[in-house]
Structure prediction request, 285 residues.
Amino acid sequence: MKRIGIIGAGIMGSGIAYLAALQGFEVVQYDTLEGAVTRSHAKALQRMDQAVDAGKMTAQERDLVYRRLTEAHDWNAFKDVDAIIEAVVEVLDVKIAIFQKLDAVVPAGVLLATNTSSLSITAIAQATRRPQDVLGLHFFNPAPVMKLIEIVRGEETSDVTVEKAQALAEELGKETIVVQKDTPGFVVNRVLMPLFIEAMRMLEEGVATAEDIDKGVRLGLNHPMGPLTLADFTGLDVDLHVMDYMYDEFHDDRFAAPLVLRRLVRAGHTGKKSGRGFYRYPSNK
Ligand code: 3HC
Prediction:
């Protein structure tokens, strides 16, 4: 594979685009938000400038990688790609509309992947006339750094498509696991969301401070970030969305979003500020 189409220029779309360019792919990226792709590429350039300053990359390498990042201005830009990775907002209808558009322009047999964190791959695949070519490629934030990609099969995903995804992941320098059954949250978020929820419930119950809950998990379990900081890093709005979806699908209290999370999101704390919201929680004081 040589050329990848990325739909979305938020945190995940930007991270995946940058990763793919670093690994030698030509990247064509699209976002409906004016200026989003330009900002995404500027951020990649800024990271590479830091790497050049730190002696981890040459200026020539930086320029080469930067030239591989291009913007798509309409869907026709995806006519000649080898794979597509969609990484837009976690709203099923939005993803379905995108896959319908892709179905109309992308040649049959091209790998069509969604980076959804929890939604049904089968439902997204059914928006196309080639559900056998569709699967989940779930990256983790920050995509250029995290080692894993979850490959998630929809009900109709073919073995050939899974093999293509494995080959792509390898070219991207990642390890994979294959999620055989299309279930909400797949493997990693099915484990991660109850961890977040339990940490938030302990905070609500006053079991320990936010700092100590995070420190306990960091030092006691060797996690690089405590769960409250990590929940913030992944985006509190995203976490709430994933929990609500998993709760609706499983009807299981293990996935019931804590009030503290709902209130923080309602108050506009959408995360990425290293535990800011939780660390100010009243019972903390
Ligand atoms: N893009 C590219 N590179 C990045 C980056 C980014 N956004 N953030 C960090 N890096 C690179 C740095 O440049 C640095 O590279 P170098 O070693 O070549 O200099 C390296 O990563 C380490 O970064 P830092 O020294 O700045 O910081 P840390 O050592 O503290 O690591 C971290 C930062 C990698 C984020 C680490 O804290 C970590 O692994 N945290 C846990 C992240 C995690 O669990 N992610 C999964 C979340 S769940 C998810 O995404 C699923 C979703 O569906 C909810």
Observations:
- The chain has two domains: 3-179, 189-276.
- Residues 15, 47, 56, 117, 140-142, 144-146, 189, 192, 224-225, 230, 234, 238 surround 3-hydroxybutanoyl-coenzyme A (CB under 6 Å).
- Residues 135 and 153 are 5 Å apart (CA to CA).
- The first strand starts at residue 3 and ends at 7.
